[in-house]
Write a structure and sequence with these properties.
80% of the residues lie in helices and 0% in strands. By secondary structure, it is mainly alpha-helical. The protein has one domain. It holds the Pfam family Gate. This is Sporulation integral membrane protein YlbJ.
Length: 406
């Protein structure tokens, strides 16, 4: 009882402090809000929307069930999750945070996985997408595409390490082990057909539901991005970030990391884009040190992403705590893998240890940079068109609902 009252008091005080900070720092709050809105408007919305819509349609068509039967012999022994986890994993890597949580929650709602399996699955299927790692972080912040290969390798291998670790989490039902049989095409095709028959929505209805569901999720994601962008800005001006950085400096001193990395690290714990950008600007640190910190930030995901995941998981019985613990472990794994892969991936292929400002001129680097800048240019247009379609669909649904009532 006392613990519950203490939590209520802490939440109330935090809310009051946040409201007061918004009043005393209106300019800084506005700047943080605009920064978060631009990130969502230009990158997050247009990059995630297609994946969300396509995944919803694949679920309705039964393709996910088909993939689940095919991947059962691989996913069950390795990660102790059903074969549909392979679909969630692939879509999570391709589209980025918080897609893994959305698809895991959907699998749980559809009854494809148990709660324990869902908590295992969501722990390693949330990651940054390749466009963000290569386009925003490697090219945009570090101006070094080769570093993106290292960051991506450490990031996705860290996902695998977390998945293997989480296979030992919870107890598996005795009847689950026997499902990991050899690959059966006929059974997969049968599951595909039966799932499509069960979901008897017309294609137009299925597409409309996919669009509305995806945009609703992305609107929620945008709200969290803006909120935490403002919070990050306010924490800096309230000198809370600097106070927390003092504690981090003591930990960094043990590993001979420059103390200037402490504030970017704290900022990255709240929002990965700002943290990665600030880390790349620390001239006093070695590139390897900045890469390790950036890997941890990308793997941890930031409290902004974790709040998005918590909101999605709250719609199911999936607990958030295992996911949060997994984020910490993935940050550690990613940092260690960056250190271990530095020589074989970065130094070996780079030839020499280039400064952070060097930009490779081979084709992949130019293509990644151009694609990222094109996304910044066309992203707002895609967002406006998508929101217009969303409003139109809602209007049609509302009109049909009123006709039925009358």
């Amino acid at each position: 009882m006392f613990r519950s009252k203490l939590k209520t008091l802490a939440l109330a005080i935090s809310g009051i402090v946040l409201a007061a900070s918004l009043i005393f720092y209106p300019k800084e709050s506005f700047e943080g809000s605009i920064r978060g809105l631009n990130l969502w408007w230009e990158i997050v919305f247009p990059s995630l929307l297609p994946f969300f819509i396509v995944s919803e349609m694949l679920i309705g068509f039964g393709v996910v069930k088909f993939i689940g039967v095919l991947l059962e012999p691989f996913m069950r022994p390795l990660f102790k999750v059903p074969g549909v986890g392979g679909f969630v994993w692939a879509m999570g890597m391709a589209s980025g945070n918080p897609a893994g949580a959305k698809f895991t929650a959907r699998m749980r709602q559809e009854g494809h996985i148990t709660r324990i399996e869902a908590e295992r699955l969501v722990s390693f299927t949330n990651s940054s997408n390749p466009l963000f790692i290569f386009g925003a972080v490697a090219v945009g912040f570090f101006h070094n595409t080769q570093l993106g290969i290292l960051l991506a390798a450490a990031h996705y291998l860290g996902n695998v390490c977390v998945g293997i670790m989480m296979r030992f989490y919870g107890k598996e039902s005795p009847d689950k082990a026997k499902n990991a049989k050899k690959l059966k095409i006929r059974a997969a095709l049968s599951a595909l057909h039966q799932t499509r028959l069960k979901d008897n929505r017309p294609i137009g209805k299925l597409l409309g539901d996919a669009v509305t569901s995806s945009i609703q999720t992305l609107l929620m994601v945008g709200g969290f991005i803006i909120l935490f962008s403002v919070i990050n800005k306010l924490l800096y001006h309230l000198h809370i970030t600097a106070a927390l950085a003092k504690f981090v400096e003591m930990i960094f001193s043990v590993f001979n990391f420059p103390e200037m990395l402490s504030i970017p690290f704290i900022s990255g714990l709240f929002e990965i884009t700002l943290g990665s950008d600030l880390t790349s600007r620390v001239d006093e640190a070695l590139l390897l040190q900045k890469a390790i910190i950036t890997s941890f930030i990308l793997a941890f995901g930031g409290f902004s992403v974790q709040a998005q995941v918590a909101s999605i998981l709250a719609q199911t019985d999936i607990r958030f705590r295992p996911f949060f613990i997994a984020r910490i472990f993935q940050g550690i794994f990613a940092g260690l893998l960056t250190l271990l892969l530095w020589n074989p991936i970065y130094v070996r292929f780079q030839g020499h240890n280039q400064p952070a400002g060097a930009l490779p001129v081979f084709g992949d680097g130019i293509w990644t940079k151009d694609f990222y800048h094109k996304m910044l240019e066309t992203g707002p247009l895609i967002t406006i068109c998508s929101l217009s379609i969303y409003i139109l669909i809602l209007f049609i649904k509302l009109k049909e609902s009123n006709i039925k009532k009358s």
